[in-house]
Amino acid sequence: MIxxxxxRKPQIKSTNxxxxxxxxxxxxxxxxxxxxxxxxxxxHKKPTPVQVVNVSYPARNxxxxxxxxxxxxxxxxxxxxxxxxxxxxxxxxxxxxxSMPLKNVHPHQIEHLRSxxxxxxxxxxxxxFKPYNEYYLLKADILLDFWDTQDEEKGRKSIPYxxxxxxxxxxxxxxxxxxxxxKVVKEKLL
Amino acid sequence: MIxxxxxRKPQIKSTNxxxxxxxxxxxxxxxxxxxxxxxxxxxHKKPTPVQVVNVSYPARNxxxxxxxxxxxxxxxxxxxxxxxxxxxxxxxxxxxxxSMPLKNVHPHQIEHLRSxxxxxxxxxxxxxFKPYNEYYLLKADILLDFWDTQDEEKGRKSIPYxxxxxxxxxxxxxxxxxxxxxKVVKEKLL
Lengths: 190, 190
Fold this sequence. Notes:
The structure is a homodimer.
Chain A: H1 3-18, H2 22-37, E1 41-45, E2 50-59, E3 62-70, E4 78-82, E5 85-94, E6 99-101, H3 107-118, E7 122-129, E8 134-139, H4 140-148, E9 158-160, H5 161-167, E10 169-170, H6 181-189
Helix pairs in contact in A: 3-4
């Protein structure tokens, strides 16, 4: 009985580290599956873009890709429809206790979120502060404000944790759905 | 000189066949770029999903995928936002003069379009009848009607060209945008 928590702790830790970036993604994908199966929303993760260079055909009808490279995505990872509204977001994780570095977000993702926001879509980031195990929904307009007012020379280049506390919305983490971000969308963004 | 055209002919032919389904796709992508640049809509093609099996690292920070396979997509190829509305569609080509075979559409694409349609999104197919060089926008509800009333034994399993003539909308083909499908969406579906 005494050993149980001691044994278990590192196991959890290693799972967390091995799945860096995967856990949040899989939590969101599990939530999306829940939303789809319960007829709440249709939201999917886009496949990771790959540049295929060589393909061989070891068997008829079976293409084997033998050389390919990961490409930088031109949009965010997730989009779909909820209550007739277009939803678009990306997911980010940080180990920082004080801020989310803006280098975590690609410029083309920023521009994509800006376009979506301009066209009346619901655009945001889901940010996981790992030290607190807190998940925040940060609306695109707040992200864009920070992005656009970055001082190139002094370089803020991060969004303080306090901004999340004050201006973003905490996403409830639970069993089903694991990460109920659409509850926040429904209550705060619609 | 005499040999040149003989050599060249099969090359052109093979290019055409190799790009089967690519031309329509690239016409749509060119239109999407036009829409994006002119601030009309934000619509992107989803990357082709690939199952990565092996990755090597010939250089630091450079991942080379050495074994991967194409996966069946779980959704349609295109989605995005237009005038605040969620848009979702797939593109199909047929060489038939009389009908579009329903085997061109994967069951999961049908179910995805059904979900989108149920959630109030704008869902459709763009179908290219190659013998006529005509492009049609077929609303998801008509597609679903045909799909759901398929006789398993007799098996219609195709949508007649006449149905396209009577119930679908011809998409204007031009220079910019090449395939102005949002004109049809705006006039007929909004």
